[in-house]
């Protein structure tokens, strides 16, 4: 989009410093298009405008998604898609469930039981109008940060005001389920590995995907989180266990006692022996 932009600057919006990666994408695919099984790197909502697509996931095993329907797949879940006809869709990707207000999200989680069998939701006229009216500029690789924020809020308003809590439970509960599952995996396994790369590999993620999901769920970089847990473990073992300093040193992957001692002095202000005496 060249010319005078919405912010009044004569510039190509794709080159504007305010432009960010577009997370609301309009796309078309021919019959036979196949997205092989993969873990979702973000939460994704698929709004099918035209055609039919076969969806395969834990929630929608062998489900035929038809024009005028939409689904949500949560971050970390596995998804496979096969276009049965030529298809046209709008895909909305997001990391945090910001399209739901906190009060609505908590009410659905605490008071609404989701269906035993998940089915796609119908695209109501108000949502159809939103999708149709946005297609012209959703195909661009980048979008104005402010416009993207407005579109997210508009989508959240439509979902919250034109769909029942029971219908929205098919969106909200999977978000919570995969967040809880990912948290459990990290808490159970972080002490078994030495690096972020090892933890990602243990969970079957690429490092990039794992970092993105971790930051979304724990709200801090994975390296910093693992380093803080490592420090907590070292202090606890020095003060409250009978393991020798050498055992603790090598249990936490240090190459030598001098290296371990320098780490303790830098992070705790004292040597391992002095920290042990403080118990």
From TrEMBL:
This is Helix-turn-helix transcriptional regulator. Keywords: DNA-binding, Transcription, Transcription regulation. It holds the Pfam family HTH_18. Residues 180-278 form the HTH araC/xylS-type domain. One of its GO terms (molecular function) is sequence-specific DNA binding. It comes from Jilunia laotingensis. PROSITE patterns: HTH_ARAC_FAMILY_2, ZINC_FINGER_C2H2_1. InterPro entries: Homeodomain-like_sf, HTH_AraC, MarA-like, Znf_C2H2_type. SMART domains: HTH_ARAC.
